[in-house]
Amino acid sequence: AKGAGRNALVEFEPALAARQAERLVLRHDLRQALAAQQMFVVYQPRVGSHSRQVASVEALLRWRHPDHGLVPPDTFIALAEESGFILELGLWVLRQALQQFALWRADPAVPVRHLSVNLSPVQLADPGFPAALHALVQEFGIRPGELELEVTEGALIQDVDAAVTRLAALRARGVAIALDDFGVGYSAMRYLNRLPFDTLKIDKSFVFAFGVERPALAIATAIVALAKALDKRVVAEGVETPEQADLLQGLGVNELQGYLYGKPQTPAELARSWAGSAPA
Ligand code: C2E
Ligand code: CA
Ligand code: CA
Ligand code: CA
């Protein structure tokens, strides 16, 4: 067993070194990525759990690196957070998404009525963020309730008092708050009644585990009950099968998001799919 362990270590080291070298390259290239127009925003539809019609979209950032192709957001968002570049990048995403949303809203053939944008904990902690957000909301004429910001709950429990103040400041500007990836990692359960938010997002790992791991459905049931008791809306992500959709609808989940209803797509791709279906 000792021998195998040593071999595993020898094989692992070059891979680790290569990974770290790649991170260094990406960290460097990330700074030019916006100016070089390598970044773009895609939008994933969300449907009402009863109507199964598109009601809203979540904006998701993409980076097409000239040599490495599409870099996973989990990788480059973390790099941008470490360097602080996420402040600029996050505002860029917000501007792009609000601009696109304003176009969609003006078009009666487009069903999108709400927009969700992910917010990094680094952005939430930035004292300048509420004013910058307010300026964008004004510029694009965003009405109360049209924009929702998704924040991962783990980011909120390190300093609950600060989180309460910051989230309240955003909600005071008519922006809704969703707790993203709910139920994974550190849980804000203990503080849930204190946090000002509107929506709970059930993490896709629970949905994937339906019918595979026995507790998954029980946990989802409990999350929905908790959300309802607190008078919050619930969105489930990672919906890939009609069985998952029906289970979630039965639990009382308000909106469904997942590959079953569409992958994250460019506005042009979405326009093609909406042109194919009759307008409501
Ligand atoms: P997230 O906010 O939890 O976004 C949901 C992720 O689940 C997205 O991955 C989406 O493509 C994926 N997904 C949705 N439905 C399904 C499904 O049915 N099956 C499977 N297998 N996956 C599904 P993506 O786009 O790779 O984004 C990963 C994460 O990167 C996001 O997780 C979010 O935490 C972060 N991210 C993406 N864009 C932004 C951004 O503009 N700002 C910030 N701060 N974070 C972002
Ligand atoms: Ca999200
Ligand atoms: Ca999520
Ligand atoms: Ca996530």
Automatic annotation (TrEMBL):
Q: Which domain of life is it from?
A: Bacteria
* Organism of derivation: Acidovorax soli
Span covered, complete protein? 588 to 867 of 871
Domain EAL positions: 23-278
- Which named protein is this? Diguanylate cyclase (GGDEF)-like protein
Signal peptide from the UniProt entry: none
